[in-house]
Amino acid sequence: MWAVFKKEWLGNFRNLSGWLFLSVTLFFMGWYFRYYGLTNGMPYISYVLDAVLFIFLFTMPLITMRSFAEEKRHRTDQLLFTSPVKLWQIVLGKYLAAVSVFLPVFPVMIIYPLIMRIYGDVPFNENVLAVVGFFFFGLAALGIGVFISSLTENQMIAAVLSFFVLLLSAMIKAISAMISVKGNALTTLLSVFDLTGPFDNSLYGVLYWPDYVYYLSIAFLTLFYTEQILTARRFSVRTHGIPWALVNTLKIVLVTGVIIGINIGVRALPYEKKSMDLTYNGIRSITDESRSALAALDRPVQIYILSSDDDKDETLEATLQRMEEASGYVKVDHIDPKEQPYFYLDYTDIEPLANSMIVTSGTKSRVVNYYDCYQVSYDYAYDVSSGGYVTTDYHVSGYDGEGRIMSAIRYVINDHVPKIYCINGHDEFEPDEELVSRISNAGFDMESVNLLLHEDIPDDGDIIFILAPVKDMNNDDIAKIRRFMEKGKSAVLITGYTEGAELDNFYSLLSDFGMEVLPGVVSETDPAYYNGTAEFLLPEIIEGELTRAVYTTGRTRFIYMPFSRGIRLKETADVSGSTFLRTTEGAYVKVGRDIEKGPFSLGIYTERYGEGGVSRVITFTTDYFLYKDINMAVNGSNYELFMRSLLKISETEEEADVPVKPYSYDPILVGPTSRGVLSFILTGVLPGAVLLVGIGIWYYRRRN
User: Fold this and answer.
1) Residue 242 scores a pLDDT above 70
2) What's the rounded Cα separation, in Å, for the pair 23 and 101?
């Protein structure tokens, strides 16, 4: 076998075919990498491989066209038949020689993400998986080429037929869609010949074992069929009789059946056993928290997804499939809006968008809007004509499908869903989309309420948010809030910097819970601040139940609280409290001409005992604490602490919170000089050098 391999390998590289394949391949790969990676900053090599795939349909037949066609044309195949080497060894030797020509392009593929890592963050696992998937695709394609080469003695015919078969296999999806959008027995049969479809999972960061089994099966069967063709050419029915032909036919049928059975068996395995999510954000799987919550379900949950076969969202489909596998109580059904346009009326009066979901259990239901499953970031620019900011662009920045669905499931199975009323009307801070999403995903209902329009805060509320009002509340507002708190309700209170204006009524509410708000902004003298600014506080995190998610003994995690007010905590007979964020003793606040020295409380948990029960209050001393950019500066620690605090005062389990999954890496930025140099090397120097080496070897052999 190795003698055959050596002969074929030398044959590929002693003439121009192998060198031409490598040169053309490297040129187009470099060109597409220049466009997607260096110019557009896309940190995924999958874009390059998806684009260059069509080029490979042309170039791979150049490797395999001479495998057996040339032997048959020159009648040297008779020497192979009479050699002591077995036929399967001959086939395998020629196939491995073709693979060896294909292999040198893969180190270059791996170099591409390494280059991108110089200029930014790159999801390396996903890039490597895309390369591995492409390699297995190549193994199957080369097997087809070797098989077709054994059918003819003309190399060009072998190349054209190989290209035609590979191109046809790449068009199977389009052909199936033309036959039937919904699919039928014929399209199911055609999908078996879809050679490029299984490659998609690798492009999307999912290691799906059945795809690799499929590609290896194609490679094995084509080589097996090649060996059978050579056997039939070596022997004949006339010399070996009909029983010999029947035995060989039965052998072909049996081996094909076994391979088909293996593929069916592998695909029948549970999804978690036949796949591995290698995406950096786990977007194709569900979190352990969700899996545990689903496993604990004790009542049926029905999920209807309003989508037709031609507009399914693959990411949502993967999430729903994982949830269905995690619990026997979860059942997912697809409703085609074209066939049942009024299905939604049993659950809502407003028609949901395509791919929206209706989650039901018993008599309760909730609609999960499709657009809410994705977090969108907007770019703004100042418009001189209108005197305001206008949206200039947007992009999808996060996937929130899992969190939204889990929130809906908790809503329909729980007898009571904690209700939050967010007080407005005093220029309060408005939570950003990501924070609102996390609150919703944690199983809370949140609604804004203006106290001017209500005699009292509605009784169905469990918690109120008062988020850094700029204008003071009137006496009636404070009276309504106090009546609400006397019922044993809870609150999140946040103070903010108000440019010298003091909010006496609002601060009196904090005083009810043993807190005295000091005027001015806290400054630090010790190195407990960020970016060299004394007011950008990085407070001490006190170890405890509330701070469990962000506390570290080596202080490797931080909470970021710019422009904080200082609070003194004073316990009374009916109020108990504890500080979980505080300044150093070197902190100070200017009060007129006087200086008030620290430490100060910046995060406080208090409880007040009354006739209506225990009222729990969480207080933070700056609204900047909840700004998205401030949270990102400390890798999400601010939101983690806030959510833990919210779950604490509502007595909700911590694992209920499912964070938004970042949807993609930020684009990499390559300067024009580096881009020009790299483009010249990858599209000019490297392919040119390979071609020149090949021409030199060919010319040297021709002269000698």
Assistant:
1) no
2) 12
Least Cα distance to 326 among 272, 396, 245 occurs for 272
Q: Give the domain CATH number at 396.
A: 3.40.30
pLDDT surpassing 90 at residue 549: no
Nearest to 140 by CA among 105, 98, 171: 98
* d(C-alpha 313, C-alpha 293), whole Å: 24
At residue 336, φ and ψ (nearest 5 deg) are -85, 115
Residues 6+ apart with CB under 8 A from 663: 281, 283, 374, 375, 396, 397, 398, 399
Half-sphere exposure of 650 (CA within 13 A, CB side): 26
The amino acid occupying position 542 is I
DSSP-based three-state secondary structure for 22:
helix
Question: What's the pLDDT band for 542 if we cut at 50, 70, 90?
Answer: very high
Whether residue 395 sits in one domain with residue 420: no
More confident call, 235 vs 412: 412
d(CA 632, CA 697): 57
Domain, as residue range, for 292: 288-401
Instruction: State the Cα–Cα distance between residues 368 and 374, nearest whole angstrom.
Output: 11
Residue 178 located in a structural domain: yes
User: How would you label 60-85 residue by residue, b for 16+ Cβ within 10 Å and e otherwise?
Assistant: bbbbbbbbbbbbbeeeebeebeeeee
Whether 223 is in a domain gets the answer: no
- The crossing angle, in degrees rounded to 10, of helices 46-64 and 16-33 is 170
Question: How many angstroms separate the CA atoms of 110 and 104, rounded?
Answer: 11
How many domains is the chain built from?
Answer: 3
Tokens of 118: 């110089």
323 closest CA partner among 250, 404, 256, 405: 405
Give residue-wise pLDDT tens across range 103-146. 888 999 999 999 988 888 888 888 899 999 999 999 999 999 99
Task: Give tens-digit pLDDT for 274-328.
Answer: 888 888 878 888 888 888 889 989 899 999 999 887 678 888 988 998 999 889 9
Q: Which residue has the tokens 């054994």?
A: 150
Amino acid 334: pLDDT: 92
**pTM score of the predicted model:** 0.66
CA 403 to chain centre: 14
Check which CATH number belongs to the domain holding 566 and give it: 3.40.50
DSSP string, 472-486: PP-HHHHHHHHHHHT
Does some domain include residue 242? no
